[in-house]
Design brief:
The radius of gyration is 26 Å and the shape is globular. The strands form three sheets. The chain has a nine-stranded mixed sheet with strand order 2-1-3-4-9-8-7-5-6, sandwiched between helices. It has a five-stranded parallel sheet with strand order 12-11-10-13-14, with helices on both faces. With about 500 residues, it is α/β, with parallel strands linked by helices. It folds into three domains: about 180 residues, Class I glutamine amidotransferase (GATase) domain (Rossmann fold, 3-Layer(aba) Sandwich), CATH 3.40.50.880; about 190 residues, Rossmann fold (3-Layer(aba) Sandwich); about 100 residues, 2-Layer Sandwich (GMP Synthetase, Chain A, domain 3), CATH 3.30.300.10. Bound molecules: xanthosine-5'-monophosphate. Xanthosine-5'-monophosphate binds next to loops. The site of xanthosine-5'-monophosphate has 13 residues, from loops. Its EC number is 6.3.5.2. It catalyses: XMP + L-glutamine + ATP + H2O = GMP + L-glutamate + AMP + diphosphate + 2 H(+). Homodimer.
Amino acid sequence: KIIIVDFGSQYTQLIARRVRELNVYCEIHPFNNLKEMDDSVKAVILSGSPFSVRDENAPQIDLTNIKGKMPLLGVCYGAQYMAQHFGGQVLPSETREYGRANLSFVSQSNPFMKGISDNSQVWMSHGDTIKQVADNFEIIASTEDVKVAAYHIQGEDTYGIQFHPEVYHSTEGLELLRNFIVNVAGCSQNWTAASFAETSIQELRDKIGNDKVVLGLSGGVDSSVAAMLLKEAIGDNLYCIFVDNGLLRKNEFEQVLEQYKFLGLNIKGVDAKSRFYEALAGESDPEKKRKAIGRVFIEVFDDEAHELTDISWLAQGTIYPDVIESVSATGGPSATIKSHHNVGGLPDFMKLKIVEPLRLLFKDEVRRVGKALGLPDNLLGRHPFPGPGLAIRILGDITPEKVRLLQEADAVFIDGLKKAGLYDKVWQAGVILLPVQSVGVMGDERTYENAVALRAVESTDGMTADWVHLPYEFLAKTSNEIINKVKGVNRVVYDISSKPPATIEWE
Ligand code: XMP
């Protein structure tokens, strides 16, 4: 495997994803909590950082057991850090070195630069620049403005690049990473979704043995893939629970339950609609609604788990971005770990051990593993859907009638996206029921009914998002269909806010 040392750059995860795209396994470790380098580590990559190497509190790392002992690549801050610590000089750059640049010199004979074109486009993002390097540093690439765009420390497999090979705008960036991983570090590219599935099924088997495991399915990609891995590993000792909280999409509970059964999962569907509606009755504060849903979910899940005997494990669909120890923005030593929030956490009174089969995977990898396990595309390509479901798309208090109305409108929108071939082009979409009534006219009648908002966004991780420019014709058709079919709605608006400053959901 490859270890990526994180100095807090926004691009660190991207480096990891690129390395894995090259079918090589890698892990991200915070600079201030490095593990011992054992034989399994084939190379180390130092990330960028929001810090300058000249800052007093700049992140430091002890490279004694790494540099010269194994292949090492510094990216941006990582490159500047090594240049500065090993006899060179880093200063603030005179011209701002951000964005697009083109290489003007490439040392083709160097294994790291092999095949990289002379004027390759690269992406810079740094306020400092390497002014001087020690004598044993060989410059292997330059741009017009940046002489030391890449260097090689002679006599060892140590490299530095001041630009970012991990971003798409560096057009041959993946090529460079491949050169480092394959030509320099000699890694074999055999870490694939199928190989991951195979090894993790064996590992789960060894770990769990004949124990029984309970898992909460949500209909989403992560919990579904986790369930399939466990099913392959332990068969009918996996007990799945799928709760109908009354806040799912139209017919979703029945359809998804059917599909899970078809996949051979040992699953129990629990109709807990009324328990959720009771807990939500009269509550219109968004945070209190979320809390109530989380609480009831745990109660229901716990009741169901108690029906089962001899359960010793709780499986969760936690994925890698949830478990990477983040280097805090201040670079301080207090690394925090984010915890998963979908299942609502484990109540103390359920003393179960936790198993998280996806904790090493990024979202796109979860999909690929799901595909390797034979999960159908319609399940793997589903839009994300929030744990509290339609409750956070009904502004104000929840009633079964409002849920029904929203389900109808949502179904028109989502089915329409599918029919128009737009569903897969959108990251997430849904309808929001507004606490607003307005005057309309239908036939000769005056109406005074609800307004709904359509929301469709493009995003990669939900952290930032932009509204999708859906075709006017499609919006016109959808609006018309909702108003005609969904009794109680006489006005449809389209949400054209980006995140930030808005959020994807309205509550
Ligand atoms: P926001 O509204 O914060 O949403 O822009 C970002 C993404 O997170 C989803 N979301 C949730 N998912 N439990 C979840 O499992 C929640 O409480 C929750 N709140 C928001 C939202 O659908 C979007 O994909």
